[in-house]
Design a protein that fits this description.
This protein has 188 residues and is of the alpha/beta class. Helices cover 35% and strands 19% of the residues. Helix 1 links the parallel strand 1 and strand 2.
Amino acid sequence: MRALIVYESMYGNTHVIADRIGAGFQTEDQIRVVAVRDATADLVAWSDLLVVGGPTHAHSLSRKATRKGALDATLKPGSLLSMDPSAAGPGLRDWLSDLGSLHHKPAAAFDTRLDAPPIFTGRASKGIGHRLERSGATLIAEDESFLVNRENQLIAGEAERALRWGQTLAKTPVDVAGHLAETAPLAR
Ligand SMILES: Cc1cc2nc3c(=O)[nH]c(=O)nc-3n(C[C@H](O)[C@H](O)[C@H](O)COP(=O)(O)O)c2cc1C
């Protein structure tokens, strides 16, 4: 299977999670883990499975203003935050709106967010999943969140959980024509 994992990340947490999801695939799988800016239409077309994730900002996907807010937070005196090399953009919101038809391509969505009930935090993965479906993708897994603390550090065990989530995705039967094999699409 050829799996493409696309991430947006301001402080590096979603980048780490994307890498761990990729590490969950089998050695015989071909895996590309790329930042949004490197996720070309050719790569999307190459993939049998498209996995997309980003940070939750203002309850949903980032916007230009929230990405600026993220940058500003790193510049505050005493801030321990630093920007991921990929953070300059573009964001997932624009990338997803420019996606052509995905023709039933198997896909899955994830996010990072604060460790609190989703009703308070929102979940970018929900919006990512909806946008993937609107482009014609078939979601093969429930949207998944990986949690950070108030200091924007991944909570212990989340990277390992991402690896296990990747392993689960890798085991989901997907045929090379880009359609789900032997599994029903998720009811949403
Ligand atoms: C401007 C801004 C807005 C945020 N809004 C939310 C939010 O509404 N809900 C939430 O759970 N986390 C929120 N967060 C925390 C982010 O989810 C967290 O920084 C992100 O998951 C870290 O991922 P990254 O290191 O890949 O950027 C916000 C962070 C920033 C910078």
